[in-house]
Q: What sequence folds into this?
């Protein structure tokens, strides 16, 4: 049996404000295996964003262990965390996070630039698969919301990541377009065997995952 892709062991995160410690995550234990599709749910303030930031190597825990592919990354430096993000993780955001003055193709190529490899043919292939081959030179403001999210999905896949983190991927879309985006995400998991962790407030969207994890007051319930 292969090792899990990631394990969180008693992950805790607190923030100090004016000398007072405020706990956000209070002992998170979680294992994600390769090929999993997990939905993370919980009310505002439950710690979802903090947990996603730690898993996405955008933040570090106050205590506990975070094992990514059997390597403890809990105390990695910011440069080492950036390397993990660029090589192993793909991000899909609610508001797309595209660079306005870059073309569709240039936005998709950004992760390749950070790694020192442009990978133009891979970007063309992804955009073609997502139905955007006629939009390569358009700017984000010339696209619909659904098209912008497809660009974000293509960007997330450029470096063939081990884990895709989707933060409310349908939150800024109408229901029909949101369903189209979810169909793409489900296909990435089922056909391409991508491991996906998705934050959502929509239980109908969450039901498309293999497993739903509920977070409340910084704890998995």
A:
């Amino acid at each position: 049996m292969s090792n899990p892709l990631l394990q969180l062991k008693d992950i805790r995160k607190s923030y100090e404000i004016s000398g007072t410690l405020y706990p956000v995550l209070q002992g998170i234990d979680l294992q994600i295996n390769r090929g999993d599709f997990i939905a993370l749910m919980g009310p505002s303030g439950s710690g979802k964003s903090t947990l996603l930031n730690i898993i996405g190597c955008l933040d570090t825990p106050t205590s506990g262990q975070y094992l990514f592919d059997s390597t403890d990354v809990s105390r990695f430096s910011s440069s080492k965390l950036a390397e993990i993000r660029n090589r192993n993780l793909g991000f899909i955001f609610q508001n797309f996070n595209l660079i306005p003055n870059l073309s569709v193709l240039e936005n998709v190529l950004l992760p390749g630039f950070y790694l020192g490899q442009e990978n133009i043919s891979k970007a063309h292939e992804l955009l073609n698969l997502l139905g955007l081959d006629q939009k390569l030179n358009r700017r984000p403001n010339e696209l619909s919301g659904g098209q912008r999210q497809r660009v974000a999905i293509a960007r997330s896949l450029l470096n063939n990541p081990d884990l895709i983190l989707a933060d409310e991927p349908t939150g800024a879309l109408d229901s029909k377009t949101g369903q189209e985006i979810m169909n793409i995400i489900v296909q990435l998991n089922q056909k391409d065997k991508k491991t996906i962790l998705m934050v959502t407030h929509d239980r109908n969207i969450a039901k498309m995952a293999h497993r739903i994890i509920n977070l409340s007051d910084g704890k998995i319930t």
